[in-house]
């Protein structure tokens, strides 16, 4: 049977009409119709025959098709079970397993151990805006046996994930990403390469997951409490932000900041992950 070019707008529309498929705004469904973008995502993630891929939200299967050609095995997680019949036609690959579940409710360690043993595990996805942060943090915080994450997300969100200190995009999510991984924007993707066309452009972000966090802290929970408090009210000075957001007294926080040689009038958005770790390790001694 001749393989369908799923990225072709003509082929895609024929399949969607055949099965009476309706795009779900609630699920943020936008399917890719550009082969170069698909190839670039696979290249960015360095998918090869030693790779086991977990794809989140395969949709019609345009990206899945290329992943199956490159990877040893692909596990595609799809929340929309109405695509089951479509997939029988579009994705007839022996190295593919489709799982119709909510990714956020999956036991990732069990899935990796049972289905991707002996392979380098990478996550690839084209994610809708509303679910981006929960999915990224589930993967990073879970410390699963995953080496790389390559995701296409809204451009504005991508810029937040890789922002530098002192920029308006820099925030708590940036620091969480920096703590667990090394991340970069691999490519900007125009909104014209999707059906239906979203209102904004997208970007592909590649995360190389670190074997151990980039900084060493005695209390990880405290580190993220400090980060959250620092960005809770961005216009406040660091001393005031931490005083109102933590259970430590103002004097204890002042002492910790002095020990770290950090200006108390600075704002949290100016600090690096290393400086936040230094504050956390000094506060724990109080």
Report the CATH superfamily of the largest domain.
Vaccinia Virus protein VP39
User: In the CATH classification, which architecture of the largest domain applies?
Assistant: 3-Layer(aba) Sandwich
What is the molecular shape? elongated
Q: Main β-sheet, in a few words? A: 7 strands, mixed
Question: Which structural class matches the secondary elements?
Answer: alpha/beta
CATH class of the largest domain: Alpha Beta
Helical run tally: 12
In terms of DSSP E residues, the strand content is 15-25%
Question: Would you mind describing this structure in some detail?
Answer:
With 286 residues, this protein is α/β, with parallel strands linked by helices. It has two domains: 9-209, Rossmann fold, CATH 3.40.50.150; 220-283, Orthogonal Bundle (Helicase, Ruva Protein, domain 3). The protein contains twelve helices and nine strands. The protein has a seven-stranded mixed sheet. Strands 1-8 form a two-stranded antiparallel ribbon.
SSE arrangement:
Blueprint: H1 9-19, E1 31-32, H2 35-45, E2 51-56, H3 62-70, E3 73-77, H4 84-90, E4 96-99, H5 108-115, E5 120-126, H6 132-141, E6 148-154, H7 155-161, H8 172-180, E7 181-189, E8 194-195, E9 202-209, H9 220-232, H10 238-245, H11 250-259, H12 273-283
Parallel strand pairs: 2-3, 2-5, 3-4, 5-6
Antiparallel strand pairs: 1-8, 6-9, 7-9
In short, what is this structure?
This protein is an alpha/beta fold. The protein has helices at 9-19, 35-45, 62-70, 84-90, 108-115, 132-141, 155-161, 172-180, 220-232, 238-245, 250-259, 273-283, and strands at residues 31-32, 51-56, 73-77, 96-99, 120-126, 148-154, 181-189, 194-195, 202-209.
